[in-house]
Amino acid sequence: ENDDLQVHALMPGWKEFVQRRAFGRFQCSQCLHEWSSAKVHILYHMCRSRGRGTVWMRAFRQACRRCSEPQLEEPEFSEETMERLLHNLVLKILKYFYHVSIQPSDLVEVVVDMPVGGPHDSARCEGCQLGVC
After folding, report:
1. Number of domain units in the chain
2. How far apart are CA 52 and CA 107, in angstroms?
3. How far apart are CA 45 and CA 108, in angstroms?
């Protein structure tokens, strides 16, 4: 994980993939309020050199809407969501570094059908603030 990753700010030889709309859960570290979001974005930067690969990732955080001075909280993902995220990441690695033809339909949707209350709170979304969302 690397919380300093920025979209479109790649080192030479690196590739980027933004996984949009993953389903994540959050808990406020101050008031313990819990919420879910179907708009969690994950940024991956990856490279391959001398037969060895490196992947850096950044999951964009969200802040509690109940606290007056909230902290940005890390998302938590279910095992099913993690499997879908990793599936899509592997497909992108195959495309970028092994030149395997990947169709958009090969990528799986990572939003799990669960009720999410209310609209996306852009003011408290790190991804929105950084122009990713």
Report:
1. 1
2. 24
3. 19
Domain-embedded: residue 93? yes
Neighbouring CB atoms inside 10 A of 59's CB total: 20
Q: Which residue segment(s) compose the domain that 98 sits in?
A: 14-130
SS3 at position 89 = helix
Q: How far apart are CA 30 and CA 53, in angstroms?
A: 38
Q: Is 101 inside any structural domain?
A: yes
Classify residue 106: in a domain, yes or no. yes
CB-based burial of residue 58 (10 Å sphere; 0-12 exposed, 13-18 middle, 19+ buried)? Answer: buried
Asked whether residue 109 is domain-assigned, the answer is yes
Q: Tens digits of per-residue pLDDT, 57-106?
A: 999 999 999 999 999 999 999 999 999 999 999 999 999 999 999 998 89
Token pair of 3 as six digits: 């919380």
